[in-house]
Amino acid sequence: MPDKETPETMESAMLALWHELTGAQMLQAVVDGRVPHGAHHALLGLRLTGAGPGRVQQTWRPPEALANFAGSGVHAGYIAMVLDDACCAAGSSHGERSYPMITLNLDLDFLRAVRPGREYTVSSELVHPGRRRMVANARVTDTDGAVVAQARAGVIPDLDFAARMQEAGAGAGDQA
Fold first, then answer.
1. In total, how many domains does the chain have?
2. First to last CA, the chain
3. Which of 2, 51, 58, 144 has a Cα-to-Cα distance from 18 of 20 to 30 A?
4. Mind listing the pLDDT tens digit for each residue in 108-159?
5. What is the CATH number of the domain that holds 65?
6. How far, CA to CA in Å, does 44 sit from each of 40, 41, 167?
């Protein structure tokens, strides 16, 4: 647990709750504010707004800093990052515990321009909850419901993170 002078991070909060919450419950804890959003969420202008097993909802308001060199739209790399994050969140929401995901592949379609400062909805769904490899779909929609970008990703749990969580839990149990 961080001390009073060290701000709580997403990782430290997840560590404190990892043995108690399922993947969907952990993501819902982010929505509820019990776990802070990650630093990348602030960079991207991304907020989790809902989570359930195999499904995650986010709101995205890309800041001006994400614009391409002409300033006409959000750089495709940032759109890819948002879609990757959404697919990984869908994978994380499925498990008995919340595991960060490692992306194996990411297939993207950019359909319309994403404009800085406008609000978008990012929805993701786990379509194959395999024991090891999972497949998820994600889409970014504008306020009219039009799909502006979509992705499909293969993801796997980051088992190194899981080992750290289990070791931390074992250490906490030894102190009790």
1. 1
2. 15
3. 58
4. 999 999 999 999 999 999 999 998 899 999 999 999 999 999 999 999 999 8
5. 3.10.129.10
6. 6, 5, 32
